[in-house]
Amino acid sequence: MKDALSLARALCDPGSVGRLDARGWTALIAAARAEQLIGTLAYRLKGLAIPDAAERVLADARASAEHWRRSALWEAEAARRALGPLDCSVILLKGTAFAAAGLDAGAGRAIGDLDILVPRDRLDDVERALLEAGWEWVKPDPYDDAYYRRWMHELPPLIHRERDRMIDVHHTILPPTARITPDAAALIEDSVALQNGLRVLSPPDMICHAVTHLFADGDLSGGLRNLWDIDRLLREYRNDAVVWEALPRRAERHGIAREFARAMRLTERLFGSPIPVVSKRGALDPFYVRRLAARDGWGRETRKGLRLAFYARSHWLRMPPLMLAEHLWRKARR
Amino acid sequence: MKHHFDVRIGPVGFRIGSAWRRPVTELATLYAGYPGPDGGIADFTVRLEPERPWRRWLRPSIAIRGDFTLPDAAPLSLAHGLLAAEMGMNLQMALGQRRFLLLHASAVERDGRALLMTGHSGAGKSTLAALLGERGWRFMGDEFALLEPDTGLLHAFPRLVSLKNGAIAQMESEAAAERFGPRLGATPKGDIRHMRPNPRAIAEMGVPARPALILFPRYGFEAADRPMGASEVFVRLTQASTNYVALGEAGFDALSTLVRRVPARAVDYPDTATALGMVEMLWAELAG
What we know:
The complex is a heterodimer of chains A (334) and B (288). With 334 residues, chain A is α/β, with parallel strands linked by helices. Chain A has helices spanning 5-12, 22-34, 38-44, 52-83, 94-100, 123-132, 142-151, 184-189, 203-215, 223-237, 241-253, 257-271, 285-292, 304-318, 321-333; strands at 91-92, 114-117, 135-137, 158-160, 166-170, 192-193, 199-200. Chain B has 288 residues and is α+β, with helices and mostly antiparallel strands. Chain B has 8 helices and 17 strands. The A-B interface holds A 21-23, 25-26, 29-30, 33-34, 51-54, 56-57, 59-61, 63-64, 67, 70-71, 298-300 and B 1, 13, 15, 17, 37-43, 45, 47, 49, 66-68, 96, 98-99, 246-248, 250.
């Protein structure tokens, strides 16, 4: 297994695993674990005739994913109880949202922290209510704290002192320093209520958020999983004409038309996804594909130079040069 | 990776990759007679790789990585490669095992029934299990005991016995020299020497056993044994388990059933000879 493209193939075409020998299976499992996609893979391959030893590993992964799902929903419920009295929109994001809304993107997905989005003008109330309900600061460092508050799209992370689970409270989906400024008010206004009163983003916004998460908010680490989220969401809504037609316009509104188009090209290329817009091939596309697949059958990161280039680029995209220099200088000095 | 070694320990298959030949040669020698992973497909991958690229040649330094990795684990020297591989396998089990409730305990078997011993490091659980394994019991493991939630059965995990400090000389007088690995001096855990379990432990490692007695040994006290309340046994076993929380409800059910069905005793002992006698007596009295 030279790179993670065979993992991508196994995900979108489960029948392709029929060709694997023992070494191929071990490699596939290691790469899927490293890309945080083992639970997803396990759900995709469920019911296929595969070797017993691999089936046992995948059955364990499904049990783990079910445990993550249950804990994530319980954590969301804890947040609902803490924030309910505030009468403010609490929007679940990413994995927890997929699980709570019962979307296919949530099947087997690893879910870590609880991510929520609230209106910026309610941030102080939300923070106070969470502190009262037993959440505590993780980062006591004053520079980090001030940095988060001034420049980030979220509060400094809070952790619950009894359940040891982290919550990230966002007021938008990208840092204010980024060159792109999504329309946070529109995200909140168009969000959809779940039965318990918590909310999730509207389907087009959910896909737009997955796109920003893939490109603008990081260095593409975990990118394959983020791209898989996009593929699953696209398939979930492919027959919903309203969502389908709204998508490109929505991406435009959030200022991510270019990133959206690129994500569409990449997910079509790697996962054969149905896509709502066809765009001209970008000059950097092959680099993105190579970066997304930079993982070998031992679970090791490969293509170090390319990884570094994307890492540098992610910081470049996130903040202006002078600010970046100062930030890295401070980080390096401690 | 350049060099690799595959092995099955009890029900768990491992693939260990290494940037250097030496750890893999040592593993192959010491794990002689062990089968490979079931169907050739490993449950877990361990990687022994240079901590930094140049540390492959220059003062070689082994970083222990794999499917599951601790971000701030201290690297080991190449001379301690065998220990690195063992720690890597333990790490995968501790962080990644979900099929079994993992108890940090040693276990031996007789007549299809298992004796579990757990306690703080230095309590002697490892040495006692290794000695019992040479004296008529089947050695099931000195580090992890694997409790299967669906059946309540205990599965063996007879990896190499990791003998520390004083226990090394004690076992050297019990077992053939060819079963021992190199003596590893000045490791983070003191002096260590690995010992291959005897042929029976390896041949029967796929055979599970019904738990029949749980002991909490403590070395360095006058000989005494005390019954323990079920709640205390339960809490101490949750502390001895690395994946109790991750298993959720299944873990709770498995552990509470174990505690309800199996008698437990705290055992203080001044020396191993006394301990072995106490174990035999408690077993005759309680495990019937």
